[in-house]
Structure formats: C-alpha cells, structure tokens
Design brief:
heterodimer; A: alpha/beta; Arc Repressor Mutant, subunit A; B: alpha+beta; 2 domains; two-stranded antiparallel ribbon; 11 helices
C-alpha cells in the first residue's frame, strides 16, 4: 500500500460520508491538502452505497449518524462488496453501541470528530496501510465485549466463542489505558509491528465472531439451504 | 353472562319447586319475561352509548317487579323469590355504572323489597340481604379503582411516548450541535489567535455535552433502586480536562454507595495526577467489568513517584495518599495496587460487585 505524499506513489483514494455539509467539506479539504484523492462524497447511506462501487475508494471515512442505511449497515455492505476497502469511523456523538457494532461489521478505525486534523490524517494513513486505529475508548469497548462473551452466562451451546490470548488481552488493556503502541512495545519488550498485530488480531476475532453469529442466526431462521 | 347463569338458576329452581307455585302459568310468565329482559339487556349493555340512566332504572324496575310479583304467584308464605339470584345482575349493573353508591343504593332497594314481601324473615334471608348490601358497594368500589387505574395507565403510556419522542428529537439536536462544536474546535485550532480560544471553548462544551448525552441514555431505561451504573459515573469524569475514560458498552451496575465511593477514589487519584505531574498532564481511566468484581485503572504518563517518597511521608506520620486510597478501597472489600516507575504511575483498584458496601 502506498503512503501519501512522501514517496510520490499513487495517492490513497478516499470517500467521505457525512450528512453535515460543513463537515464534509472541511474533511474533504483537509484530505486533499494532505495529498489524498477524495474520489467521492456522500450525504447519506443510500448515496454512499450507490457511489461506492464506481468510486472504488481504499478508505471510507464514515460518520455513523447518517440518514438512510446507517453507518453500521454501510460498513457491512461496503466491505461485502469490496473486502479490501477500509472503513474509518469518524463519529461526533460517540454512540458506544453503534461504534462497537461498526467495528464488528468490519470497521478498522475509530476517531471522534474532536480529534485534530493531524490525528485525522494520520488515522486515514494508518487505516489505508491496513493498521487498526484504536482510541482508548474503543479499546475499552472491545475489551468489555470479549469479557462479556467469555462469561459463563453466555449461551453454553456456542462453542468457539472468541477468546483473546493472554498477550492480546494485555496489549488491548494497555491501549485502553491510553498507552501508545510505542509505549506498549517498550513495556512488553516487543516490536512495534508485533503490538500492531496483536491489536489487529483482536479486531479480526471480534469480526469473525460477528460473522459466525450472523450465520448461526441465518441457519436458525431457516435462511440456509443446508440440511443440518 | 352472569345474568344468563342466574336466569338458568332461577328457572331450574322454579321448575324443581314448582309445587310451591300457586299460579304456575304466572310463574312461567315471569320467567319468560326475565329471559326476554336478559336477552335485551345483555345486548343493550354491550355498547357504552346505550348504558344510560333510563336503561339502568328500567333494569332495576324489572328486577323489583319480578321480586314483588312473587307473592302473587307463590302465595304469601314463599321460601325463595321467583327471580332468586337473578336480581343480583341488576344490582351489579348499578355498581359498575355508579360505583359504590350505586351498588349500595340498588342493594338497599332490592333488599328492602325482598324483606318487605316476606311474611316471616329467616336467618338465611338476613344473611343473603347482608351479602347483597356488602357486595354491591364493594363491586362498585373495585370498578371505580379499575377505571382509575386504566386512566392512570393511559396517562403513563402517553407520557412515556412523549418522553421517547422528546429523547429522539434531542438526539437529532444534540448530534447537530456536537458536529458544529467539533467543527468550530477544529477550525479554531487551524486559525489560531482568538479563534483558537473559541475553538478550545467549543471543545470543552462538546465534551460536556457528550457526557450529558451518555448519562441521559443511561437514565432513560432504568428505574433507580439503589443501583448506580459505574460506567456512566466514571464516564462523567471526561468533564475534567485531559482525562480519557474507557468503559465497556452497556451499564456496569453496582450498589449506589459502592459506586459513589469508587468514583470518589478515582477522583482522588486524578487530583493526585494534577498535583504531582501537572495540571495539563493527561490521565487515563479504564473500567473493566467481571462477573464478581470490577477493575478500575488510573494511569498517568508522569515521571513516577520518586523512590522513598512514600516511605518518607509515612515516617512523618502523614496519612499519605497511598494509605488514604488503599484504606478506602479496603473498606469496600477490595484492593488497590500502585505501580510506579519511569513510565508513569498506575493505580489498579479491584472492588467486589456484591454488596460489601461500607457501613
């Protein structure tokens, strides 16, 4: 994947989805000024889904609170259409449940709108590279979700509930405590890349579990053609 | 329905005791009239519009007529009246329509007529009369209560629907306001100067509003029963500058006293960060919920507590922060551990979720 600006490779193709025109323009302007190619903008879920296939963005910067199919649904459908695309959630209201749902649907980054321009640009770059962009808040949510799933109160018939390795839990906890990947790497005597991998693995496990859940739901509802 | 059953009862009793009838055809005529009235009135009462005072008066009059005709068909020395329990239906209709006073009035009239007709009054007659006098008002009272409850329930449903709609509208408004505040903050930081100050103010308000929204959400679907959502209570600490709070999704319920104390301890830790690391020093709070306990961590990026500093404070007989915090958590039945070093300082609090509330 290309990094922007520095090495003169193709700019990262970005799509901005936000129902607030001022915001959409500001984000678009900032991205363009930093050398990204904003290939499409959309004001609601319908527009986003309609314009996505033709624009083929690498990164979708997505507001969760949009009219039409909401951000979670857009995330799901966009990634179904192009699993190689990346979704960065940029949310104003910090709706906890929605953020968690979007991450389960496959979003790999989350940023609140109060983040600075530099933070946004950095997040888009990292998401485009395939990294996960966590805030401590999101890490806390994901950690809480794994804790919830591992509780015995959960459906005992479900085998293969996702479990984090001890290391993954440790790393995720440190992210939730506000430590940077660099600080974590130092504390645990790991490489930056390894920390990054652990973080990504946790998201991957959560998304995988979500897909399994959806499939299970489909089978229960008889939407599946298999005999068993 | 009751009327039909008591009618069958009256017919059956009169058939069995037909030997008592001085004028069997008269008795049959009364029963036939009762049957006809039962059919009519059952139909008439189904619609609220027809449940008028004249109909109820007529109902009572028919019941009284059936009663007073008894001596004529059965002779003056009768045991049971021709309509028997059937008169109860009219009485209940009055009770339903006019509450306890209607029930009492109808009962008095029917009982008076019944007793006046009898040549001699037995214990059983008095017992029945007594039951009618008691039953009428009670049924009336119950009907009144039921109707009041229905009215109250409707009102509650209405206000709940209104509140939900208000919350929905508020959400739309809040989202818009949050967007603008975030935008002002962002543009302000780019422009610098006075605009930067405006941006900073907008940022503070945005943070505050977001915290408020979360606490409103937590409030919405909860009845207070001495339980506090610790996740929500800790999230409010985001109001403090440079404090980031990470919590699981969904509520983390703890007894109110415990939750309040945990928040107070966390605040003490944060105060300590501000005092020793700096007013602008960032701090992070993480809440984790386990089935039997909660774990709260408070961390800073400061230089750590210098070695010997804590011992020194203790030697001087000052109740150090360490002891204060550990003591308060111990009172909750939990533990507080301190890690410090060049990487910063971190408190890890663990508090049981069961009611080990402080006295």
């Amino acid at each position: 994947m290309s990094d922007v600006g520095s090495d003169g490779q193709d700019p990262v193709r970005v799509m901005v989805v936000d129902d607030h025109p001022m915001w959409r323009d500001a984000v678009e302007r900032d991205l363009q000024a930093a050398g990204f190619a904003v290939v499409a903008v959309a004001a609601d879920g319908h527009q986003a889904l309609a314009r996505f296939p033709a624009a083929r963005p690498q990164v979708v910067v997505l507001d969760l609170q949009i009219p039409g199919p909401n951000g979670v649904e857009v995330t799901r459908q966009v990634l179904q259409h192009d699993p190689g695309a990346r979704v960065l959630i940029l949310s104003a209201s910090g709706e906890q449940d929605d953020v968690l749902e979007a991450v389960k649907a496959g979003a790999t980054g989350y940023l609140v709108k109060s983040a600075s321009v530099a933070e946004l640009l950095d997040a888009v770059r990292r998401v485009a590279r395939g990294d996960s962009v966590f805030t401590p808040g999101l890490a806390g949510l994901v950690l809480g979700e794994f804790r919830r799933l591992s509780e015995p109160a959960g459906d005992p018939s479900i085998t293969g509930n996702p479990e984090l390795t001890e290391r993954e839990t440790e790393v995720l906890k440190m992210v939730a405590k506000g430590m940077s990947y660099k600080q974590i790497a130092e504390r645990l005597v790991l490489s930056h890349r390894t920390v990054q991998n652990h973080v990504q693995n946790t998201l991957r496990k959560l998304q995988m579990h979500n897909r399994v859940e959806l499939t299970r739901y489909a089978i229960e509802r008889g939407l599946d053609t298999d005999d068993d | 329905m009751l009327r039909a059953i008591t009618l069958l009862n009256a017919i059956a009793i009169n058939v069995v005791t037909r030997d008592d009838l001085v004028h069997p055809w008269g008795g049959a005529a009364i029963l036939a009239a009762m049957a006809a009235w039962t059919a009519f009135v059952t139909w008439a009462y189904t619609d609220a519009v027809r449940r008028s005072i004249p109909l109820l008066l007529a109902d009572a009059a028919v019941a009284l007529a059936a009663l007073t005709l008894t001596p004529l068909v059965k002779g003056p020395d009768f045991d049971g009246t021709v309509p028997g329990f059937w008169v109860m239906a009219a009485l209940l209709a009055w009770a339903v329509r006019f509450r306890q006073w209607g029930g009492l009035g109808a009962a008095v009239v029917i009982v008076a007529a019944d007793l006046w007709l009898r040549a001699d009054i037995t214990q059983t007659n008095l017992g029945n009369a007594y039951l009618l006098l008691i039953g009428g008002p009670i049924v009336g009272f119950l009907c009144g209560s039921l109707q009041e409850m229905a009215v109250q329930r409707d009102a509650a449903q209405q206000s709940a629907a209104a509140a939900a709609e208000r919350a929905r509208l508020a959400r739309v408004v809040h989202d818009g306001v949050l967007q603008v505040l975030a935008l002002v903050q962002r543009r302000g930081a780019e422009l610098g100067g006075d605009a930067a100050e405006l941006g900073r103010l907008a940022g503070e308000q945005e943070k505050r509003l977001r915290t408020l929204i979360r606490s409103q959400d937590a409030l919405r679907d909860r009845v207070d029963n001495g339980v506090v959502d610790l996740a929500d209570a800790l999230a409010r600490l985001r109001d403090r500058p440079h404090v980031d709070v990470a919590v699981p999704g969904g509520p983390v319920d703890l007894p109110a006293a415990t939750a309040t104390e945990v928040v107070a301890v966390v605040e003490a830790c944060l105060d300590n960060v501000a005092r020793h690391v700096g007013e602008d020093a960032p701090a992070w709070v993480l809440l984790e919920a386990f089935p039997d306990h909660v774990a709260v961590s408070v961390r800073d990026d400061g230089p750590g507590i210098p070695e010997g500093r804590l011992e020194e404070a203790r030697a001087q007989g000052r109740l150090g922060v360490l002891e204060s915090i550990q003591g308060r958590v111990r009172d909750l039945g939990g533990t507080a551990e301190l890690t410090t070093g060049s990487f910063g300082t971190e408190w890890e609090l663990s508090v049981p979720r069961s009611t080990h509330a402080p006295r």
